[in-house]
Amino acid sequence: MIKGRLLKNRSLNTFLKYSIRHKTLLITTVLLSFLASGLSALPAWLIKYLVDDVLISKNVKMLVIVISGLIVSTILKGVASYFTDVKSAFVTETIKREIKIDVFKHLQNLPISYYKKNKLGDIMARLSGDASSLGKIGFLIFDVLKEVTTAIVLLVRLFQVNWLLSIISLTALPAVMNLIKKYTKKIRKAGRKRQDIAGELIAYTQEGLSGINIVKAFSAEEKAIKNYNTLNMKEFDASMRSKKIRAKVSPINEVITTLMVSLVAGYGCYLVVVKNTMSPGDLISFVTALGLLQSPIKNMIKRNNELQEMLPSADRVLEILDADTEIDHHGIKEEMSGNISEVKFEHVKFYYDDKSEAAVKDFNLFVKPGEVVALVGKSGSGKTTLVNLIPRFYETSEGTIKVNGIDIKNYSLKEYRKNIGIVPQETFLFSGTIASNIAYGREKSTMEEIVEAAKMANAYDFIMEFEKGFDTEVGERGAMISGGQKQRIAIARALIQDPEIMILDEATSALDTESERLVQDALDKLMEGRTTFVIAHRLSTIINADKIVVMEKGEIKEIGCHNELLEQGGIYKKLYETQFGETA
Ligand SMILES: Nc1ncnc2c1ncn2[C@@H]1O[C@H](COP(=O)(O)OP(=O)(O)OP(=O)(O)O)[C@@H](O)[C@H]1O
């Protein structure tokens, strides 16, 4: 019954699905494990000959046979065990590796909205710790298999000696099975809780360390430690709860089995001494087999408990695979051919979720190739949401965005996105060299192209000032490089990609005048000849834009160039006066 339920479990099924890919190796491992288990039950047979033939009948020849048998079988068992362990480790590790890469691939194809809803630390916990649990299921299955085989061989010996005595000895088995059933559910539930809390703890750690400068700036170290400790204690409690449940099972099982062995020893002695229907060798062989049976049963229970605890953790990995990936294209796939001729928004509407108010409402705009569109508006007016719709980070809820007259949902996502360059407000650099960060924009860029892009982005001079030049490691999260320098590397990365559509989110944080001038100049070069959507914060960008789109509550309120909008004397004029009054 337990086995039936196990097979219905998703993690186990997934593990088996992956296992089938390695069936030859799997069959070899299982056969080796059968051999090792069979040989470990052999003493139950040999002991009969040792007692009846060697000790009672004083047959010395038999002593040699028994001892040789014992030595040879132990060596064989050792060899078989070694190969079983190595092969099962290989299968398990291979499956773990395959599952992890599949989960990572899936993560790469999940929409941005998934990452907004789920904490990064929790995703990482699922990919590392929980994926390992899924892999460990393999070890447990092999172990359980080994124990089951040993148990079967020993049961054969028991029934061979005396069937009635065997049935008496096995009466305790239903009680043991019942015990397992009762605790299985409890252990699984406690395991899931522990795993969820562990995920929370990792997420908190990741968040706390990523924002360490904010923690320090607010002198919030004590608070961070306190929060960490609260979660740490919660994990400790959950872990202890699950360990306590597990710890109960083995002693109860041991008491039951000892009672059973005592009963057998009593009745067996009666058969040997009073009834004379059994040889002493058979009784000792029987008791040996029964004693040897304890270990596989105990291990089966232990492994089952571990399995129950691990399954929820493994399920957490599979939950990632449940999340819907981005849709490559809707309807018939359209090819992206030729240059971008136009971008058109037709009655575009977007809701983050069904219940919320639309973040973009009935947005209509026609953009000619090479035009620069500056989006302005108060915080929360929907500028970021709108630009996120262009690379299909989010899909429009209603209406269409057309590029070259075709709904962008019909283009193959990867092909379409290759035409779009993005320079976000906060620059993200990957750990690696400056050169590799610039080359990230286009695969197989040559060093000349990297240098050229760096020069255009006004990054060349500062890069060459570093001792290792383009080979300078930017450090994790680009820690060694200043804000303005990072921005220029990001601009070089976009330039090397040479996209036709550019999305810029201008940084609001002020740079020093010189750095600001260099960044602005690099941005101007980046925008040149490209259809650009810019969430504008700099006055010069706004004034030079072909179209300024003034947004409020997701809607276009005003549209036109700088002078036209000033003349209108509406929202833009007010915004301009409040934000740029002094500069202007
Ligand atoms: N991931 C999200 N889930 C739900 N609502 C969101 C999400 N992101 C933004 N919103 C909501 O959508 C609306 C528009 O936000 P958006 O970030 O697009 O504005 P914005 O003009 O770019 O603001 P800012 O200038 O401050 O960046 C806001 O009401 C915001 O609360």
Automatic annotation (TrEMBL):
Question: What is its membrane topology?
Answer: Multi-pass membrane protein
Q: What keywords are annotated for this sequence in UniProt?
A: ATP-binding, Membrane, Nucleotide-binding, Transmembrane, Transmembrane helix
Name its cellular compartments. Answer: Cell membrane
Domain ABC transmembrane type-1: from-to ranges: 27-309
Q: Which InterPro entries match?
A: AAA+_ATPase, ABC1_TM_dom, ABC1_TM_sf, ABC_transporter-like_ATP-bd, ABC_transporter-like_CS, P-loop_NTPase, Type_1_exporter
According to the UniProt record, one GO cellular component term is: plasma membrane
Q: Where does the UniProt annotation place the signal sequence?
A: none
Main location per the UniProt record: membrane
Cite the GO molecular-function annotations of the record.
ABC-type oligopeptide transporter activity; ATP binding; ATP hydrolysis activity
Q: Which domain of life is it from?
A: Bacteria
Matches recorded under SUPFAM superfamilies? ABC transporter transmembrane region, P-loop containing nucleoside triphosphate hydrolases
Domain ABC transporter residue range list: 343-578
Please give the start and end residues of each transmembrane region: 60-80, 134-155, 161-180, 251-273
Q: What protein does this entry describe?
A: ABC transporter related protein
